[in-house]
Amino acid sequence: MADEQSAPPVVVAMKGHPGSGKSTVARAIAAALRCPLLDKDDVRDSTLPLEDLAAAGMLNELSYAVLWRVAERQVQLGLSVVIDSPLSRRAHLDALTRLPGALVVIVECHPGDKEEWRRRLEKRGAAVANGGGGGDGWHKPKTWAELERLVEGYQGRTDYEIGDVPRIVVDTTVPAVDVDVIAAKVVGFISSVGLVPVVELTPFYY
């Protein structure tokens, strides 16, 4: 108990493009760690009434600002937290690493099977287009072509240098791999962070 109380809060930062399995893995990790899950899309979905009043980019950055503030409050309370967002820009990671007293760990979702990734994204997109989800996800790409345009718009900026921030890369499209197995691997990785210097940690795939 004393060791748990002295351990710093961990900010588990998800990273990856839409449809890469981030949300599914994030929920499993939060359940395994029994800690709050903060989803950037929950905030972004709530900005729909403002869509005609502000630029999409402004609402997107507002969503991040709210996310960082809520995360900061959890860390101040000594709670670890899982943050589900694309983490598409280095500035977003910098905002997390500036949270005082928190250890940031990146969980990057990298779908190895492109066709399975495409199938999942377009299945979700079709559900949203047909009114599924109660309006949630209206701002996400609904087709593979929309995702490709989004990725092209990043112009490679999503592949930024993360420095000495610990990172684990997981393939969410591996056949017959249960999400709870992925979550267990991530939790094991997080546990190892406190046992070795972060500069010696390297990403690994499975």
Labels describing this entry:
206 residues, alpha/beta, Rossmann fold, five-stranded parallel beta sheet, 8 helices, 5 strands, disordered C terminus, P-loop_NTPase, Adenylate kinase
Overview of this protein structure:
This protein is of the alpha/beta class and 206 residues long. It has a single domain, classed as Rossmann fold, CATH 3.40.50.300. It is 46% helix and 12% strand. The chain contains eight helices and five strands. The chain has helices spanning 2-6, 22-33, 40-45, 56-76, 90-97, 114-129, 144-154, 179-193; strands at residues 10-15, 37-39, 81-84, 103-109, 167-170. It has a five-stranded parallel β-sheet with strand order 2-3-1-4-5, sandwiched between helices. Helix 2 packs across helix 8. It is globular, with a radius of gyration of 17 Å.
Spell out the blueprint of helices and strands.
Elements: H1 2-6, E1 10-15, H2 22-33, E2 37-39, H3 40-45, H4 56-76, E3 81-84, H5 90-97, E4 103-109, H6 114-129, H7 144-154, E5 167-170, H8 179-193
Parallel strand pairs: 1-3, 1-4, 2-3, 4-5
Helix pairs in contact: 2-8
